Amino acid sequence: MKIQGKVAWITGASSGIGGALATELFGRGATVILSARNSANLDELKSKLDAIEKGRCFVLPCDVTVPAQITDTAEKIKMMVPRLDILVNNAGVSQRSYAVDTSVEVDRALMEVNFFGAVGVTKAVLPWMISNGGGGIVVISSMAGKFGFRMRTAYSASKHALQGFFETLRAELHDKNIQVTLVCPGRVRTDISINSLTGEGKKYGIMDSGQQNGVPVEKCASIIIRAIENNRKEVFIGLPERFLLIVKRICPPLFYWIVNRASPT
Q1: SS3 for the chain, per residue?
Q2: Looking at the whole model, is its pTM more than 0.70?
Q3: What is the mean pLDDT of residues 229-258?
């Protein structure tokens, strides 16, 4: 897939990986539609992109946990542009709490944003993409969707669910010219830990040292763009986490020894 001239809708575009992806896609010639709950941040990003070239960036605030907002946003997009070539399901929230200290309400909230949000957005535009001849669906999962990690029970569960749903969707759409790219980042230098939920549903508010020293978000976005261009089915980002994934496959006892002792922050 060539990025030039494509139309992309990015959820969770107000910061982090979503914002970096929007900037990278725009820089490569795509028209970008930015969605998130934080309208101020979306407008700020739009101003930066408009300063480069006007007319290729649109802002449509949307809370992916509200089905009516998803439907309304999708309908607005259909009226704004002739087609949607790339959907980036990036909206999400992480967790910093042990299972025993986490309310079921928080578990459900994480599933609503990370899993059902992505499913709802995808279903809102998938028939349109198919009728227009195809496109690409990019899902920002996590290395936590491949193995468990302390203080991430519900977050990991939601990302495992994403993996199962979208791997199956890829198989169902293999003859519809729809490519599905699952992205599994490890620690990336974003505010994800700051915005994580505690067991009581409050904002964690702390920048983890692992996050602070993670992969630069711009590098992460560049890797994802290459994956889209090359129709990669799955891409893993972050050397330590990729190492753990290999260890889990070839030497499970060593993997569990490492994970049980690794700092969750």
Answers
A1: CCCCCCEEEEECCCCHHHHHHHHHHHHCCCEEEEECCCHHHHHHHHHHHHHHCCCCEEECCCCCCCHHHHHHHHHHHHHHCCCCCEEEECCCCCECCCHHHCCHHHHHHHHHHHHHHHHHHHHHHHHHHHHCCCEEEEEECCHHHCCCCCCCHHHHHHHHHHHHHHHHHHHHCCCCCEEEEEEEECCEECCCCCCCECCCCCECCCCCHHHHCCEEHHHHHHHHHHHHHCCCCEEEECHHHHHHHHHHHHCHHHHHHHHHHCCCC
A2: yes
A3: 95
